[in-house]
Design goal:
The complex is a heterodimer. Chain A is mainly alpha-helical. Chain A contains 6 helices and no strands. Classes of the chains: A mainly alpha, B mainly alpha.
Chain lengths: 247, 553
């Protein structure tokens, strides 16, 4: 009877006459709507990521409070030089990523390609340094498990002659497990990010993202900055707070 | 007051020539579709499949409990039965039930959009569901999991030799499916509404799915990381939940219930949305207190995040935090009661008819009220010590989840069936199914309240002989209930071919989805609609119908 009875009317009298760019997906009305939708979705996704990392942060804070001595002594053995360098590298990569977004907006193909390549390089440098750090943990017997050892630990009260608490090794393993879980989860996000960057670079090389359709680059930028910010929380939590000068 | 609406003459209804069902053919056109309606149908088929697997386990549990002696299955097998029943029913049926099927189908149409915001992610979420389900099936065929659906540590990490890692992996993957569904709904409701569709013109179904999506998006990642830790603990012994290594099993409980209590609201909220639509449609009245019902959904979602520790009253949390969590638990009863009272007020002086969706909705209201009120018993500290870990708690959550959610799900599937398929289900058969389900349900689970109050613990397959009468009643009820669920399984597929042709608006409902053809076109609307009236405006509909008749006639 009324199979054609739609709640009526045209949304916009001009609709259908306007030229739509090719990248406008069929279920969106305007480019603006498509961009806002994508960006809103990305922010929500990042929210789920915060909750995901939140579980680990919760565990870390709880055990740090319970086993303060072990956590401080363990934290003291982390390589602060490498950690600081990595923090710098990551912040720099966020800058190059931001430049990439800017280049896409200003339709600068060369700038976009340069920025994306630099971001990839910096991301790889970060992972490289991280690998060195992990290797150090291996040589120092700081990987939780049978060969774990606290021989080179220093008692956190600055007194070299004070013996370590007997359960130090056990609780230090908790620290190192959480260290590996948190930095490992972060590194996994970096690896995913770098893989996506390669795809973006390939597409940009073939002329994508400089025709005004920048939302993929924008949203990837959000992801990259998010991964960066996770590190900004990890670095002080794992390396810096309550660090003491003895080593 | 209610508007007099006469139902359209279905003799004249015809199936539209072109619809989403016949726009493309072949398996590939279904498995690679980005159409929210087709994905909804994929979900409908898969969750029905898992519902019957989960149901088979329930049947075996009830069969074992027919006699006081452990004579049908061994203790280990019994543990696996209730674990697999719980895991499959919670993660593969209840969580995706209404949102992923009915919600996927109607939410974009209700807001006046051509699809969900991210159609490909929607398809991805179905594939994640299937992948997670495959892991669980693999675990199942290789001997199952026997930790209980809660994966309680240190039992799950140290003391059992079943496929915990595979099972947890399955739940982990299926969890991402629900994250993506929730994300898609939130973005769609925010950004894809048609002109004139303000927040307070949205059907209440959208509001309640929005609230449930918030919980999915914020809660499920915490479950994901918790399960990762359980898997690592079991695989390499990391010690986070292991007290012998300085870890804390209670931390697992906190993290797990931080998701799994809100998950209860993920399951029930979309069902409440269905009830709002159905009650309004079959009373021909606007939902009483629309704004209150809308905000009560959000309130349930918000309160839902602050009550998780009531699962842990006997696990050694401090008395003070138990007191606070008990109080917060009571608070959830307020928005739930707002909904029940508003639905009752909607019925008042409505012109009520008793089609099948309405019968299921009545079932929901009664059973959910009992389930909700017994939740208040369990939320109060003293009572909880006595009742927790008994059959009382089993009966309580089955009243909410099965009596509430499953009734709402069946109500929704019947209600939107004409829209999904273009054909009516057989009315008298389905009314019989609705009544059978209700009677079977009461008979199954009411005795469990009594037997639980008398002290029969849950998760045991042997019990003192004096409990046998109540257990036999319960098993008999489960049989009736099973028949009630099998009936739709028979007549729904039958109706695909032989059902009466529905026409676009067989119920004379007001939602946008009822103003387009059934089954809808792939792009839903020929032109993007303009919403120029409030939700549940039956006067608008009556006026529109009248106007149409004069132009046509």
């Amino acid at each position: 009877m009324d199979s054609q009875a739609i709640v009526t009317g045209h949304a916009d009298p001009h609709e259908g006459h306007e030229e739509h760019p090719a990248y406008l997906r069929h279920h969106f009305v305007t480019v603006e709507q498509q961009r806002e939708t994508a960006s809103f979705g990305m922010w929500l996704f990042l929210l789920t990521e915060i909750m995901f990392f939140g579980g680990l942060f919760m565990a870390y804070l709880l055990y740090r409070n319970w086993y303060y001595d072990a956590f401080v002594a363990s934290s003291n053995t982390l390589g602060i030089g490498l950690g600081t360098t990595n923090t710098g590298v990551l912040i720099l990569s966020s800058f190059t990523m931001a430049m990439g977004v800017y280049s896409a907006e200003t339709r600068n193909r060369k700038g976009l390609l340069t920025s994306l390549s630099l971001t990839i390089c910096l991301g790889l440098v970060f992972l490289g340094i991280k690998t060195i750090e992990y290797h150090d943990k291996y040589t120092e017997h700081h990987i939780p498990g049978a060969s774990f050892s606290v021989e080179d630990f220093v008692h956190p009260t600055d007194k070299r002659d004070v013996p370590l608490a007997p359960d130090m090794a056990q609780h230090a393993q908790l620290f190192f497990f959480l260290y590996f879980a948190m930095t490992g989860m972060h590194a996994l996000h970096m690896i995913i990010g770098i893989s996506i960057l390669f795809v973006l670079l390939y597409q940009a090389y073939h002329g994508a993202y400089i025709d005004g359709h920048t939302s993929t680059i924008d949203n990837f930028g959000l992801y990259w900055h998010f991964v960066d910010i996770v590190w900004i929380f990890l670095f002080p939590l794992l390396y810096l707070i309550s660090r003491h000068p003895l080593k | 007051m209610s508007t007099i609406v006469s139902l359209p003459n279905q003799e004249e209804a015809q199936l539209p020539k072109l619809s989403y069902l016949n726009s493309e053919y072949g398996l590939k056109s279904w498995l690679l579709t980005a159409d929210h309606k087709r994905i909804a149908m994929l979900y409908l088929i898969s969750i029905t499949f898992f519902f019957f697997i989960g149901g088979a386990f329930a049947g075996m549990i009830r069969l074992e409990l027919l006699t006081p002696l452990p004579d049908l299955v061994a203790s280990d097998t019994y543990n696996k039965l209730f674990t697999m029943h719980g895991i499959i029913m919670v993660f593969l049926f209840l969580v995706p039930s209404v949102p992923a099927t009915v919600g996927n189908f109607v939410i974009p149409i209700m807001v006046g959009a051509k699809d969900l915001a991210f159609p490909k992610i929607n398809l991805l979420s179905w594939y994640l569901y299937v992948a997670g389900a495959c892991f669980l099936l693999y675990a199942l065929f290789n001997g199952g999991v026997d930790t209980g659906w809660t994966f309680t540590t240190p039992l799950s990490t140290h003391y059992v030799n079943t496929h915990v890692i595979t099972g947890a992996m399955g739940v982990f993957i299926a969890g991402f499916s629900s994250i993506f569904t929730g994300l898609n709904f939130i973005v769609t409701i925010h950004r894809m509404r048609c002109p004139g569709m303000t927040w307070f013109r949205l059907p209440l179904f959208c509001w309640s799915n929005y609230a449930a999506s918030l919980l999915m998006v914020l809660g499920t990642p915490v479950l994901a990381i918790t399960l990762v830790l359980v898997m690592l603990e079991r695989a390499v012994g990391i010690g986070v939940f292991d007290p012998t290594k300085g870890g804390d099993p209670l931390l697992f409980q906190h993290l797990f219930w931080f998701y799994s209590h809100p998950a209860v609201y993920i399951m029930i909220l979309p069902g409440m949305g269905v009830i709002s639509e159905v009650i309004s449609t079959f009373s021909r009245k606007r939902v009483f207190g629309y704004t209150a019902v809308a905000f009560s959904s959000v309130a349930i979602a918000v309160f839902g995040f602050f009550v998780w520790a009531h699962h842990m009253f006997i696990m050694g949390v401090s008395n003070y935090s138990a007191l606070v969590f008990s109080l917060l638990t009571m608070l959830v009863a307020v928005p739930s009661a707002i909904k029940i009272f508003n639905w009752a007020a909607t019925l008042y002086k409505g012109s009520i008819t008793f089609e099948t969706p309405m019968l299921y909705a009545f079932g929901f209201m009664g059973l959910f009220t009992i389930g909700g009120l017994t939740g208040v018993f369990l939320g109060s500290l003293g009572m909880d010590i006595h009742l927790t870990e008994t059959y009382f708690i089993v009966a309580h959550f089955h009243f909410v989840m099965v009596g509430g959610m499953l009734m709402a799900y069946l109500s929704g599937v019947h209600f939107w069936w004409p829209k999904m398929t273009g054909r009516m289900y057989p009315e008298s058969m389905s009314q019989l199914a609705a009544v059978t389900t209700f009677i079977g349900f009461i008979l199954t689970f009411f005795p469990q309240f009594i037997v639980g109050y008398l002290g029969m613990p849950r998760r045991y397959h042997a019990y003192p002989p004096e409990f046998q009468v109540l257990n036999v009643l319960s098993t008999a009820g489960a049989t009736v209930l099973g028949i009630g669920y099998l009936l739709p399984m028979l007549y729904m597929p039958w109706s695909l071919k032989y059902g009466k042709i529905a026409g676009s608006n067989p119920w004379q409902a007001t939602g946008l989805e009822w103003q387009i053809q059934s089954p809808p076109l792939t792009e839903n609307f020929v032109d993007i609609p303009i919403m120029d009236h409030e939700a549940y405006d039956y006067d608008w509909l009556a006026h529109k119908t009248e106007h149409e008749v004069t132009t046509v006639g």
